[in-house]
Amino acid sequence: RQLLVPKDPTAPPVVFHYIPWFGSAAYYGVDPYKFMFECREKYGDVFTFILLGRRMTVALGPKGNNLSLGGKVSHVSAEDAYTPLTTPVFGKGVVYDCPNDMLMQQKKFIKHGLTTEALQSYTELMPPECHQYFAKELKLSKANPGPKTVDVLHMMAQLIVLTAGRTLQGKEIRESMSLHFAKLLEDLDKGFTPLNMMFPNLPLPSYRRRDRAQKQMSDFYMSIMAKRRTGEYDHENDMIQALQGSVYRNGTPLTDRDVAHMMIALLMAGQHTSSATSSWFLLHLAHDQELQQRLYQEQVDKFGNPDGTFRPMTFDDTKKLPLMDSCIRETLRLHAPIHSILRKVLQPIVVPQSLAAPSENVSYVIPKGHFIVAAPGVSQMDPKIWEEASRWNPLRWLVDGGVAKTADEQYTSGEKVDYGFGAVSKGTESPYQPFGAGRHRCVGEQFAYLQLTLVIGEVIRNFKLTAAQDEFPKTNYQTMIVLPLDPKINIEARV
Ligand code: HEM
Fold first, then answer.
1. I need a labelling partner for 446 at 20 to 30 A (CA). Which of 145, 150, 208, 438 fits?
2. 92 CA distance to ligand 1 middle (Å)
3. CA distances from residue 266 to 10, 228, 260, 322 in whole angstroms, order as listed
4. d(CA 12, CA 10)
5. Which of 156, 262, 273, 428 to mutate to test the pocket of ligand 1 (most atoms within 8 A of CB)?
6. Domains in the chain with CATH codes
């Protein structure tokens, strides 16, 4: 039969697979990067694979990234790709459960919670949270320096949720963190997995717990807003405060329910991405004593007091730490938390001939109904682009002691696009996009950098890290976010 049906010459090549519906699910699911690098060798930068009945067309390299991240709203849709996963967790009416134009306006509202003034107040609030955690959970001191073996992912997940809780999420959320809230977050998390993405509604207990937790968490945020209106709580410089009272261009106000759902979205968007990034960062430091010492020295040089203590950082200080900045950049290069950025194809996309099948005189067309996959991590680890691409080497970002231009600045035409929250470099055709690019680019990058700089700064100021295993931890791709597997380190108080 196959012989009778001529292959459409414009269709991207399909990755060979044995089982029709299942397709390449096992290979892609276990190690998406290995899969994509191997497919690139065989099929070029653009190819289609089958994933549990879905047709996924991968477009690799900076030009491939541009095809989906720079795609027109009429051609590619993030909401059609993500909503089965995100709407049950975030709640209805916001982010991917509304037209794209509304999401763009919501991102503008979020920017109001990330002003310089707000970020400065967050800078003051985060270190005390870290100190409290160190004293309560690590219990290491000059008298009892350790070392102690810890699961670094667990430790960082705690530090990230506590510091985001105290700042962006607001005082009331932080106060309830050790109580009911932690359990709700856990139940929501368990509903935010690749399984949920592929099968949004299964009759499983974890799905029921997800739905219950979503409702309870949303109600909790709403009760905070109601209490704040009565003046029972002091108003803080936080995101709830920034979002309440926001009004869409057409005059429709954000409801408290909308704000609650946006707060859950922000919590979920920042929690695992930043926990993963900080864990990978500390794992690399534990395996690289020289760099760890240099990073400690950076803190001493900039903030050290003569008596061996440190002065607190200001928001401005956090932006002037070349080595810390390079370490974060390099960690995000090698361990981009999101390996596949998805869009649903709404209208056929013509692939530029330079991108695919250069030997054949044909342009591929990605048909409507496919998913288009951007994998910035592939260009971020491409040996054709980066020297010693697979080595964690933060120093590659430093030029004469200063920070090199960002990869974006180096590789893009610098085109500026205004999506309503200020002109940003479109950056859709860049080999470095850990925060995505184009209209869906991450809105939390600045907060993430601030949080990582402060939390890791506090860890480095107070502790020495060493590897708990000879081998560097392997990667777990079975979760929505790329995580280290069994990530143990030894931690010891500096004396
Ligand atoms: C979107 C990465 C932290 C809020 C994205 C996207 C990426 C990303 C790749 C684009 C997704 C797409 O195009 O489909 C990261 C990384 C982080 C981080 C690597 C930390 C290291 C945060 C934080 C927040 C946040 C802390 C909130 C405070 C968002 C939101 C979007 C987003 C709301 C959705 C934007 C949209 O679809 O238009 N992030 N993120 N992220 N991020 Fe982040």
1. 150
2. 19
3. 40, 20, 10, 28
4. 6
5. 273
6. 1-69+341-374 (no CATH), 70-340+375-493 (1.10.630.10)
Look at the block and give the residue holding tokens 């709203």.
73
Tokens, residue 271: 């929690």
- Asked if residues 336 and 434 have their Cβ atoms less than 8 Å apart, the reply is yes
Helix-then-strand count for the chain, H and E: 19, 16
Ligand 1 pocket, Cβ-based, cut-off 6 angstroms: 78, 103, 107, 168, 265-266, 269-270, 273-274, 277, 332, 337-338, 341, 434-436, 440, 442-444, 447-448
pLDDT digits (tens, 9 = 90+) for 166-206: 999 998 899 888 778 888 999 999 999 999 999 988 999 99
pLDDT (mean) for 212-231:
93
Q: How far is the CA of 49 from the centre of ligand 1 (A)?
A: 26
Q: What is the pLDDT of residue 138?
A: 95
Q: Is 251's pLDDT higher than 60? A: yes
d(CA 265, CA 93): 12
Terminus-to-terminus CA distance in the chain, angstroms?
A: 75
